Amino acid sequence: MSRPEKHSESRGEETPVDERAYTASLAELARDLATDPQVGLGVEQAAKRLAEDGPNELRRGSGISPLAILVQQFRSLVVWLLIGAALVSMALGELVDGGAILAIVVLNAGLGFLQEFRAERSVAALARLAAPRARLVRGGRPVLLPAREVVRGDLLVLDAGDLVAADARLLEASAFRVNEAPLTGESEPVEKHAEILPPGTPLADRRNQVFLGTSVASGSGRALVVATGMRTEVGGIARLLESASSGETPLQRRFDRVARRLLWACLGIVAVVFALGRLRGTETFELFLGAVSLAVAAVPEGLPAVVTVALALGVERMVRRNALVRRLPSVETLGSTQVICTDKTGTLTVGAMTVRRLVAADAVFRVTGEGYAAEGTILAEGAARATPTSLLRVAAGCNDAELSFAEGTPVIAGDPTEVALLVAAAKVGIRRETLEAEEPRLRTLPFDSDRKRMSVVREREGAPFAYVKGAPEAILARSSRVRTEAGDLPLDAPTRARLEQAIALLAVDALRVLAFAERRLERVEGGAEIEEDLTFVGLAGLQDPPRPEAREAIAKCRRAGIRIVMITGDHPDTARAIASELGVLGPGDEVLVGTELAALSDAELRERVERVRVYARVTAEDKLRIVRAWKARGFVVAMTGDGVNDAPALREASIGIAMGITGTEVAKEAADMVITDDNFASIVAAVEEGRGIFENVAKTLSYLLAGNAGELVLMLVATLAGYPLPLLPIQLLWINLVTDGLPALALATDPIDPAVLDRPPRASVAELLDRSRLASIALTGCLTAAVAFAVFVFEMGSHGQLATARNAAFSTLVIAELLRAFGARSEVKLVPEIGLFSNLRLFAIVAASFALQIWIHHSPFLGRLFGTEPISLAQCVAWIALGSLPLLALEVRKWVRRSADVRRT
Predict the structure, then answer these.
(1) So what's the pLDDT on residue 682?
(2) Active site residue 400
């Protein structure tokens, strides 16, 4: 295998301490760090080291200033086209036109600035992970210091509830468990020890180390600090986060392409008009006036506002579906998503350990219900008749967790596995508080990694009973009897073999297996001998189960052509089992472990990435490389996550999706969107909304550009034919902003097509306007221009008054645009099939726009501003009849095309 390429995100000189941090003996490590593992550093030595290494802080990224964010709002060519048209208009004295256009530009820039102002603070949020205070031993004396003063070689003292202030190597650990989910994605607290580990041990398996940003779940320990600040594992993630960038969204790229085409079309038409004007000897001022009119006609002034409103309304709908969007363009990006890289814990799964199977010597039970709620039942499989009450009584009795219900809501404290056992017991009516009252606790032998078991002695029936739980092999080896439906019997070889087979089968299903036993004692006193000669009661198989709705959501993604990739810090067997159960992993799909991924070069990963559906035991850098590999293949990638280790990939992805409940602040700040219920189904619902928004934006753009095309063709044909300009710039602006813009806003809120997820996702290079839409735009523009030009020529020939002819062309074009809005809702369905009232906003806006158009004809002030004059009822009826011709022609075209498609099929 070729040597892996050196990644651009390498941490350089700030690489975390080398493998000796977990492979060296404690004596060697203390010598390397020049410290005493019993008394810690001296005060002067610590001060000198603090001066050399700097404070134990994460470097705050420079980020992007508010001014830079504001400047970014003006990157679009459409915006600069509008600014150019406004400046030319104002230079020629058309102050109303220019002012209106600039107002639109400023409004859109303000909205975009407010949406994105908070999007550049991800690295700064990392600094808030550090523990504010740390308990140390310095010079043999315990001290409490600000975490920023911790240095290499310091002796940390850690207890349950503490935040870890730096990366450190454990010297001693007593029942010590650490919550590393924010860093590694591991769903359960990790049991730690002080033993030496082999070289190459993955981060998630370094059980003799603790890391900055994690928290102590239980137990106590002491540890030597091996890395601080930016040299810690979290510091490495901060460095990756600085280098990550999602780039432009697909919508931004598509609008830029549209803007470039509009720019060249506008320049070409203006050049033609100038050339013809010069040949005819037209005055320069009149030529400039014509250029301004053409620029106004060519550029859809209402487009930025319409798109902004469409995206904002999409954001509002997404909130109702548990998705909060932080950047408006991300709404449409969701609709372009081709790959979703998703975390497992809490997203595809419930995020809470749950008992799923119970096994007695002669019975197997399935446990329904997920999470910490007591809803659910315990169902016997096969011919079993009894209930596992005895088993669950031992599980609840040998337990240090707390579970209560306040108005039906579970209130928990303690180890998640022990809480899950209490929940299962509650499903058969065994409550912790009742058990404590009936069987008071007399003594506890805590769990430790050597014994692999825990015991609680309780008083029952006037005698002490030991309730024991632990690793199946440890409990089974110390059992001489077994509980059955017929009573307690000797544990013979066939029964032992059967139980060992049950343990193996539970493990194959990636369930965490615990065994339970009990023993009646003669006295309370005694050591480990009370855990001998046990009566084996049964087994429990636990798992963080898949969400019930996740399977259907993944099936929807498959129908929609979206690829699902599971990325988790959990064990590969657990990841494989969950992925198979949910339908993520299919025949021929690969599972890749973090160590295997690290051995691949970037080029090898790009070649293989489309075949891998599950990644297990991965690091923050692994996740970032996976996202980059998909993007390098040309895919639009969504990435979900909740931990610190997810933040760089969230930032790098086309759209980053953080979890709202379990997500760290760092993940939320790095993401474009936050899912408020941590549910994968909500992500799929957001994708559905995104696709619907794209469809609405595309048909809105088609509607606006068809209107602009009609105005351009009208102005160009009139100029070529030697007529005066049929429309004034202020009339064109009115058409673009009111009679086109307002219906376009209503089109942008059209109901989403229910079948939108039955189609494959758009390619990242796909255009907003394909050939079919461009053909429709050209045909529609020609039809509306033809009607308006015919009216203009007729009025000029009949009355010879330019003002009257402009009046007629202006109103006819407005009516044609308003009526055409009803047909623009679909390229396939006819207006009667869609229904006039299925979009009440559109119907109301068209009616209001008709009223406004009549008003500007009869208002003296508006008449002077727009160059209009009063009209008669006969004129109004005639213009409505003529204005309806383009809509009728386009509806006939739809019917003909659909009939042809039916005949072909």
Answers:
(1) 86
(2) no
